[in-house]
């Protein structure tokens, strides 16, 4: 899907993903001290807005202009202090090159691209990460095609934990967690079942003193 397709999808409904942050983002980042965060393919900003409410200064990037404007409106409807910590950027994550080494947290959540394009975005994400920073990648797992429910039905845009670890090899990151996780009681395709996600958390090592 290109940006116009996503504009149409976002424009066809009030909120595509809801306002609650992703459960894995909450689990993996709640204990982190607030700093600068980069949310690549932020959609309507549910994770960015949640982080800003916890004191993070967040740059939210998405290539759908409709999604970015909706995120701005959602943020403006909340506390002004949190909204002031958000920067909204209308840009394609494939072409957007963030400031190098500037972010203590980088999110790539449910961005599904063919492997070559995915590696480009992950490269941008890795280079944006500051020493000691966390990169969190979450998406529908390849195993979800046969063992789960929902998500893309094209194996070419899904990925496993080893896929992401391999994509980021050579970027100087340490793997903290690389696993499949299950979201229970997901309703999709007319049935309730578990969805299987890939979750990979990595950190950039701090330089030796």
Detailed description of the structure:
This protein is α/β, with parallel strands linked by helices and 209 residues long. 31% of the residues lie in helices and 31% in strands. It has eight helices and seven strands; from the N terminus they run ααβαβααββαβααββ. A seven-stranded mixed sheet has the order 3-2-1-4-5-7-6. It is globular, with a radius of gyration of 16 Å. The termini are far apart.
Structure summarized in a few sentences:
The protein has eight helices and seven strands; from the N terminus they run ααβαβααββαβααββ. By secondary structure, it is of the alpha/beta class. The chain has a seven-stranded mixed beta sheet.
The overall average pLDDT, rounded, is 90
Largest sheet: 7 strands, mixed
Shape: globular
Continuous helix count: 8
Query: Reading side by side through the largest sheet, how are the strands ordered?
Result: 3-2-1-4-5-7-6
Work out the strand percent.
Answer: 25-35%
**In angstroms, what separates the terminal alpha carbons?**
46 Å
The helix/strand series, from N terminus to C terminus, equals HHEHEHHEEHEHHEE
Q: Structural class, from helix and strand content? A: alpha/beta
Residue share in helix: 25-40%
Instruction: Report the strand count.
Output: 7
């Amino acid at each position: 899907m290109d940006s116009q397709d996503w504009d149409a999808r976002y424009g066809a409904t009030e909120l595509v993903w809801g306002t609650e942050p992703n459960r894995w983002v909450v689990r993996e980042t709640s204990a982190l001290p607030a700093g600068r965060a980069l949310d690549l393919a932020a959609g309507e900003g549910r994770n960015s807005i949640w982080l800003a409410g916890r004191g993070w200064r967040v740059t939210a990037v998405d290539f759908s202009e409709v999604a970015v404007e909706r995120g701005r409106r959602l943020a403006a409807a909340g506390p002004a202090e949190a909204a002031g910590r958000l920067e909204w950027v209308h840009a394609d994550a494939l072409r957007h090159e963030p400031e190098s080494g500037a972010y203590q947290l980088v999110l790539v959540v449910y961005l599904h691209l063919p492997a070559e394009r995915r590696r480009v975005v992950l490269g941008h994400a890795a280079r944006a990460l500051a020493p000691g920073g966390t990169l969190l990648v979450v998406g529908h797992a390849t195993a979800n095609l046969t063992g789960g429910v929902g998500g893309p039905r094209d194996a070419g845009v899904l990925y496993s934990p080893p896929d992401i670890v391999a994509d980021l090899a050579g970027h100087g990151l340490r793997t903290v967690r690389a696993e499949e996780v299950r979201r229970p009681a997901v309703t999709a395709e007319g049935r309730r079942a578990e969805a299987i996600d890939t979750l990979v958390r990595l950190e950039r090592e701090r330089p030796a003193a």
